[in-house]
Amino acid sequence: MSEVSVIIRTADQTRKAEVTLPGSHTGADVIQAAVDNWALPKDTDYSLINTRVAKTIQPTIALDTQGVQDGDVLEVQPMLVAG
Amino acid sequence: MERYLRHDLIDWFDQEHLRATRALVIGAGAVGNEVVKNLALLGVGAITIVDFDKIELHNLTRSVLFSEDDVGKYKAEVAADAVKKLDPNCCVEFLIGDIWDAVDFSRLRNSTVVFSCVDGFIARIRINQLCSLLGVDLINSGIDSRYVSAEIFPFMRDPEVACYECNLPPSVYQRVGERFSCGWLKKVAFEEKKVPTTAITASYAGALATSLFLYSFREDAASGARRVFLDSVAHTSSSISLSKSPMCACCAGQAKERVIIRANRRIDDLLLDGMASLRSSIMVSDPILVSWETPIDFNCEEGREVIFALASHFSDADATCRRCGLKHRLAVIRDQFTVEELAEFRGMKLPGKFASIEEDGTQILVELYDGDEHE
Predict the structure, then answer these.
(1) What is the pTM of this model?
(2) Which terminus of chain B is less hemmed in, N or C, by CB atoms within 10 Å?
(3) Domain locations in chain A?
(4) Which domain of life does this protein belong to (chain A) (predicted)?
C-alpha cells in the first residue's frame, strides 16, 4: 500500500504535524484525525485544502487519487455556516 | 452621471452591466445587510431581498441597515427600505419567507446572481440545488467570529463547475440529520447552535461576496468555482479552487439536457398532463409522509392513516397513537414514486417545490403550483 508524507495544519497555524498516511485515506479521515488529536471543536465541520495547488481535497475520495504528494501542506479550514 | 463619478474613473468598471443586474439576496442578517448595502452603493439595478425573520435587539451589533426602532419588524422589509434611501433609482423588492417557499423558478431564472447569506447548512444546500438546476450564478458566504469565506459558483457560464455540495464533508449530513428523527420528521427538542459573529467578519464577508460578483464579469476573471478564505485576526487570505465531486449528492449524474415546466400539483391533473405515459420514477424535491402505520404486533386497531403531506410538517411527537397513547406508529416517508404508485393518491396534491423525472437522458423539472393558475 502506498503512503504519503504530508504536513497537516489548522487554519490559524497554531497546530501543525508532519505525518505519514496510507494513500487510501480520504480527506474526511484526515479531518477526523485532526479533530481527535488536536481537540478541535466537534460542533464545527471542516474542509481540507491542499495549499500547494490551492485546491480543496474531496472528503470521500482517497488522497492518492487526488494528486496529494510527499511534502504537501494540507490545511484544515472550518466550514462557516453563519450569515 | 455624477453619482458614479468615482466609478467612471476606473477603466474596467462596467456601470451599465451593474445597472442591468438583477440580484437576489437570500438572508438579510449580518452578511445580507452588508451585501445589500454594497450592491445598492455600486448601482445594481434591481435587488430582491428574501428573509422570513424579524429583527431582534442582538442583531443590531452586526447589521448596518437596522436601528433600534426596527426591532420586531421584518428584516427583508427594513433592508429594502434602507436600499431606497441609499439609491432611489434601485428597483428593490422584498419577500417574507424562505427561498423554498417564497421564490419561484421564474424569479430565480430571471436573476443575474443569487447571494446566499443564510444561517445553516440546510438553507445553503437548498439554494445550491436550485441555482445548480436552473443555471443561475451563486455566491455563498459564511462567517464566524474570526474567519470569513465567500464562494462563487458560476453555473450560468459553466453548468459543469463544482457545486456547494461537492465539497461538503460527511459530518455536515450527519449534523443535518441530527435535526430530524429517522425519515425527516422534525425532532421536537432540537436547539439550533448559535455561532458567535462580529460586525468585522460580517463586513469582510459582504465585501468579499460583492467583489467576487463584481470581478466575475471581467474578461480576466478566474474560471470555475472558487473560495476566498480570510482570517480576520491574522489578516491572511487565500483563494482556493473548488474541486468537483463525482459522488456529489446534488450535481453528480445530473442530465445535461433539461426541460423546465410548471404544473398544477393536483395528482389527477399531473397524470392528465402527460405523466401517465412516463416510464421513469418521479422524484419529489421534499420527503413526503405517505402514511402512519401501526405494526400488527401492537395490540392496537389504529391501522393505517394516509397523510401524503410534507414530512417536515410533522414531528416525532406525531408518532403517538391517538387510540392507545403509545408512540408506536411508524412513518412511511418517500421521495420517489412510479406513475402507478402516484395514481393511488388521485384526488390529492403532490407536495413539494418541484418534481424531477429523467426520461431518455433529459431531466424534466416540474415546478408545482397550487390553485387555478394557468400558464
Answers:
(1) 0.93
(2) C
(3) 3-78
(4) Bacteria
**B36 shares a domain with B102:** yes
- The two beta strands, B185-186 and B180-181, are antiparallel
User: Is residue B375 predicted with pLDDT exceeding 50?
Assistant: no
Mean pLDDT of chain B, nearest integer: 91
Pairwise CA distance, residues B211 & B87, whole Å: 19
**C-beta separation of B22 from B111 below 8 A:** yes
Residue with cell 394516509: B306
CB B49: neighbour CB atoms within 10 A? 32
Enclosing domain of residue B324: 257-369
Q: Per-residue confidence at B277, pLDDT binned at 50, 70, 90?
A: confident
| Boundary of a domain, candidates B210, B241, B272 | B241
Instruction: Tell me whether strands B22-26 and B46-51 are parallel, antiparallel or unpaired.
Output: parallel
| Torsion angle of the four alpha carbons B94, B99, B104, B105, in this order, in degrees rounded to the nearest 10 | 120
In this structure, whether the domain defined by A3-78 belongs to CATH 1.10.405.10 is answered with no
Q: Domain for residue B251, yes or no?
A: no
Same-domain status, B193 and B297: no
For chain A, how big is the Rg over CA atoms in Å?
12
Residue B286, exposed/middle/buried by CB under 10 A (0-12, 13-18, 19+)? middle
Better-predicted residue by pLDDT, B336 or B300: B336
Min CA distance, A11 vs chain B (Å)? 8
Confirm if B126 and B200 have CB atoms less than 8 A apart: no
Instruction: Say which of A47, A51, A82 has its CB closest to residue B167.
Output: A47
Using CA of residue B360, residue B365, residue B370, residue B373, what is the dihedral sign?
Answer: negative
- Judge whether A46 and A56 are in contact, CB under 8 Å: no
> For residues B102 and B95, is the Cβ–Cβ distance under 8 A?
yes
- Among A8-12, B102-106, B191-195, B264-268, which is the least confidently predicted range? B191-195
Give me the residues of A, 2-21, that contact B with CB < 8 A: 11-13
Option in A47, A58, A82 nearest B245 (CB): A58
Identify which of B142, B172, B239 has the shortest CB distance to residue A82. Answer: B142
Digit-coded pLDDT (tens) for A37-70? 999 999 999 999 999 999 999 999 999 999 999 9
A56 interaction partners in chain B (CB closer than 8 Å): 167, 227, 240-243
Domain boundary among B198, B216, B241: B241
